[in-house]
Amino acid sequence: MKSITIKGSERESVGKKATKALRNAGKVPCVVYGGDKPLHFSADELAFRDLVYTPNAHTVVVDLENGEKVEAVMQDIQFHPVTDKILHIDFYQLFKDKEVTMNIPVKLIGNSPGVRNGGRLLFRKRKLAIKALPDNLPDFFDVDISKLKIGQNIAVSSLLNDDFSILHPDSTVVVQVKTARAAIVVEEEEEEEGVEGAEATAEGAAEGTEAPAADTAAESKE
Hints:
This protein is an alpha+beta fold. It folds into two domains: 3-94, CATH 2.40.240.10; 101-178, RNA Polymerase Alpha Subunit, Chain A, domain 2. Helices cover 26% and strands 36% of the residues. The protein has four helices and 13 strands. The protein has a six-stranded mixed beta barrel. A four-stranded mixed beta sheet has the order 10-7-9-12, with no helix packed on it. β5 and β6 form a beta hairpin.
């Protein structure tokens, strides 16, 4: 999995006043859990742009001014309810021999024949929670929908891998193609119009064959 480096400074004070001062200075207070003790640090809000505002998953290297570097993954993030500014981020430290839980994005590959035939694509799970060792964390799940027909789905069971555990039931639907009701109505209306047109043609043909017969009988009497 790709890693992003965040340059930060260790926080000496973690009180409310110090935290408010950091935010006013355009910095984000953060905490790294999972080690011997929590690591409190702060970094410029812009430093988190490629980590937060992206659909992709990344690990993080927290590069502190004192030379210490810590590998971690983002676990939780808080935004301001009005301005959407980042208020706080929690990280979890990574260890080579310790499994970590992380949400991995799902990417769809190909074009579904079911959609081409009028079906509706439903993307049920855009991210899947997994548990794995850091070296086994995938960048994303590739889900091929090039053979997905109307009424079919792709479930978690088809994405299982020995390198990690997916924390969803095997029957969980990731993506599916359902029949579009509007398309069915249109087809039924076209069929009904076709039947009515055929009946009208048949009636017209019948009337057309009777009329000449009547005229012929009248002419023979004259």
